[in-house]
């Protein structure tokens, strides 16, 4: 897999560092809020951790924070090479854009968070997606993407959906109302899931197209 081995571009370290710090901060706030809620309800904290890492938003923002952290470290291990890969970064970009778009279209109107929950909500769903898209646009090598990579990226939301169904069947908690089989039924949930997956594919196609156009523009200079 291709690895970004070139020296960091001017401003890249500062941008990635600030974005990584903000990303980890947002995740820490959200984790605290979930665990605090479990504590006050005298519920299992381990269950709180499982719930925290069961959200697609949390998983994808964790990938964003890890990729940004790997970008500014000097290590050359397999994990660092993986998360520096332009192909992986483009896949994460596609996923974090899906997080933001799906949340703002399907979920934002369902609640009105306040205080620190509002802070975490805005950071995870709006700020971090914009920052990582900016990072990908400005600093990640272009010209390496193809449709085969989009097919590989689809595995992430597909596996997540399978996990969500398993978790929901086991605990009766589907996390996202548009994927709640208990309320909507399996048929409707499958339609909704394919709709979200179609949105992912459209976003991915746009990312691949931008990648090719920007690479061609650079070559023609």
Topology:
Blueprint: H1 12-40, H2 45-52, H3 56-71, H4 78-84, H5 86-107, H6 115-139, H7 147-153, H8 155-171, H9 181-184, H10 186-219
Helix pairs in contact: 1-2, 1-3, 1-6, 3-4, 3-5, 3-6, 5-6, 5-10
Summary tags:
single chain, disordered N terminus, mainly alpha
What does this structure look like?
The chain has one domain (12-219). Helix content is 76%, strand content 0%. The chain is built from 10 helices and no strands. The chain has helices at residues 12-40, 45-52, 56-71, 78-84, 86-107, 115-139, 147-153, 155-171, 181-184, 186-219. α1 runs antiparallel to α2, α3 (56-71) packs antiparallel against α5 (86-107) and α3 crosses α6 (115-139). The chain is globular. It starts with 11 loop residues before the first helix and ends with a helix. Mean pLDDT is 92; it is low at 1-5.
Tally of contiguous helical segments: 10
| Mean model confidence by pLDDT | 92
Backbone structural class: mainly alpha
Number of structurally distinct domains: 1
InterPro entries: Pr6Pr-like
Keywords: Membrane, Transmembrane, Transmembrane helix
Organism: Pseudomonas abietaniphila
Transmembrane segments: 15-37, 49-70, 82-103, 123-140, 147-166, 186-210
Short recap of the structure:
The chain is mainly alpha-helical and 221 residues long. Helices cover 76% and strands 0% of the residues. Helix 1 (12-40) runs antiparallel to helix 3 (56-71) and helix 5 (86-107) packs antiparallel against helix 6.
């Amino acid at each position: 897999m291709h690895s970004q081995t070139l020296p960091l571009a001017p401003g890249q370290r500062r941008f990635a560092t600030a974005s990584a710090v903000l990303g980890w901060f947002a995740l820490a706030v959200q984790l605290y809020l979930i665990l605090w809620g479990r504590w006050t309800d005298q519920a299992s904290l381990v269950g709180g951790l499982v719930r925290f890492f069961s959200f697609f938003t949390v998983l994808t923002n964790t990938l964003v924070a890890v990729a940004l952290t790997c970008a500014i470290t000097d290590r050359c291990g397999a994990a660092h090479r993986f998360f520096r890969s332009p192909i992986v970064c483009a896949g994460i970009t596609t996923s974090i854009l899906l997080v933001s778009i799906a949340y703002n279209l399907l979920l934002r109107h369902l609640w009105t968070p306040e205080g620190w929950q509002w802070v975490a909500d805005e950071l995870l769903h709006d700020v971090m997606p914009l920052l990582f898209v900016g990072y990908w646009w400005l600093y990640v090598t272009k010209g390496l993407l193809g449709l085969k990579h989009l097919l590989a990226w689809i595995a992430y939301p597909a596996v997540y959906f399978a996990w969500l169904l398993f978790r929901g069947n086991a605990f009766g908690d589907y996390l996202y109302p548009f994927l709640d089989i208990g309320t909507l039924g399996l048929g409707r949930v499958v339609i909704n899931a394919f709709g979200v997956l179609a949105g992912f594919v459209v976003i991915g196609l746009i990312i691949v197209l931008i990648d090719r156009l920007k690479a061609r523009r650079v070559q023609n200079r």
